[in-house]
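Problem: given the chain below (481 residues), write out its structure.
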Amino acid sequence: MSVRRALTYLIASLVVVVGSFAATLTLTDKRPVLGLDLQGGISVTLAPVGDPKPEAIDKAVEIIRNRVDSLGVAEPEISRQGDLIIVDLPGVRDREKAQRLVGRTAELRFRTVLQNLPPYEPTPPPTTGTGATGATGATGTTTTSTPDGSQIPNTPPEEDTAGAIVVLPGRTPPGAPNRYQLGPTLLTGEAVSSADGTFENGSWGVTVNFTGKGGQAFVDKVADPNVGKQVAIVLDGVVQSAPVINAGITAGNPVRISGDFTQQEAEDLALVLRFGALPVQLKQETVDNVSPSLGRDQLRAGIVAGVVGLALVALYMILFYRVLGLVVWLGLAMTGMTLYTIISWLGYSIGLTLTLAGVTGVIVSVGVTVDSYVVYFERLKDEVRAGRTVRSSVDRGFQRSFRTILAADLVSLIGAFVLWLLAVGAVRGFAFFLGLSTLLDLIVSYFVMHPVVSLMARRRGLVTMRGVGIGAGLDTPEVAA
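Solution.
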């Protein structure tokens, strides 16, 4: 490797790694998001009542995951273990709400749309001074003018009570009304037998089939009384769609929900209609509270174990490979900074959490990383013992050793991928961080380890330095530079 190329690789790597690491440290909201076992939270175990089909349990997991996402939990883990559903909620503050939410068998409801409302806008508390003006009542509550000219309180969305008139948000595109005033529930999702996203007459929509009794109930309670009006399809307190009822709907025939749907929107609405309510009745088997103090103790123990292990490895590499051991130190530091940066940004962007299992995966990967340096240095020994100079051995040794490093890391990557694909729970975290660390090892080996050794080999003093030089580290003190 030429000096220019080695310097380019090394400087570019340092700028990217150190720069991104420094930027991450300066941003207070960019920190690794800790998992349930490290920051505390709750773990809820749900068991189905009766003997449901596996498909029904899978759909229940999917619906519960959507509900938990609404809590704002950083990477909740919802997994299935046999017929049990395990819900881990790291950092949850309103634990009672979380417990109610994950186990509730929600109903899909059809409600008449009374009014489309503008967005809810929180208002500051009313002032007590004189001269204040505004549309406020006696208690200072603001009101909203509705399309028909009436005034209703500007209140946030309410609970989805079946028999009451409620105001609920809608899943609507920007610019459309995203609050609805709705009448009492007309029909529940039990009337629906199937629903599919279909493409007809040049547009996407949803074709809904009802059960025998459900079809007649839909006609009597929903279709006939609301021709020309909007009827909202509500799940978990959110209006999923609010189509206009056309005339001519009869029992026994499928109902077509049309509108300005994309394919994905039509398929999502069909999924809501098919499995809007949890398809199985669940009961809470256990609710375990994980205390933050226990999490901190585990994290502290993991960090101490990692630091002690790294210190011993660093000391061993210096004693065995002398000045080349500094290359190992640099490589581990670069890998550590990159890992911290990636984990922090993934935690911020997609909610990736760092669990104790993940910390274990990172610590285990140190062995994989150090092995790469050992393979390279031992290959250099063979080249030097064959009569070559250190400088001429650097590139030749790296080309041959990198094939071995690549083969070993690929085995580790394949194992981590299979483990991540098939495992559940904390084991997946272990596999993810082990795989990520192994991938970084390949990158650092190519762009840091080889360039640094190549530059060091051109310094005669570093090669021949008595007792600590490269020659001494390769067990050939008299080797030529």
